[in-house]
Write a structure and sequence with these properties.
The chain contains 4 helices and 7 strands, in the order ααβββββββαα. It is α+β, with helices and mostly antiparallel strands.
């Protein structure tokens, strides 16, 4: 009887503690054409749990992305939402910039966006590890003023 209990515990430890959420995330990313991961190293700690989008009554597209940091330490990711018109061209605005998002360890964060124009028909959310250029962009006086710093 003890032998069966030991075998059960060994099987449980091998398969019961696997990281199923990462597998779901990779599958989710592969099936969602709206997500572009430009740096696969972020998949070690970043999970995209859900994407929701809706065309509002004013013909604008609203999108919300629920992310999670599965690491115990705070991490920063750079993201950008690209909006496309009916011809596949990017609709550029002053908000079409890379943004930094710091996510505390084992916490969720929400990215929210509204299309800049009624001519937008689709979007892509791009993720990557921040670079030194991103840190310089975040020092922009206008961004700090917007944040109330």
């Amino acid at each position: 009887m003890k032998k069966y209990i030991l075998v059960f515990l060994a099987v449980f430890l091998l398969f019961g503690c696997s990281d199923k959420q990462k597998e779901i995330t990779l599958e989710y990313i592969n099936t969602h054409k709206n997500i572009v991961i430009e740096d696969n190293s972020i998949l070690k700690w970043l999970i995209i749990e859900n994407i929701a989008s809706v065309v509002r009554p004013d013909s604008m597209i609203e999108v919300e992305i629920l992310t999670k940091n599965i690491n115990s330490a705070s991490k920063t990711v750079a993201y950008k939402i690209d909006w496309f018109d009916q011809n596949g061209f990017v609709v550029e605005t002053i908000l079409s910039k890379w943004r930094l998002l710091q996510i505390e360890g084992t916490r969720n964060a929400i990215i929210h966006g509204i299309s800049p124009s009624q001519n937008v028909v689709s979007y892509k959310i791009r993720f990557q590890e921040p670079t030194s250029s991103d840190a310089k962009r975040d020092m922009n006086v206008n961004i700090k003023e917007f944040r109330g710093e």
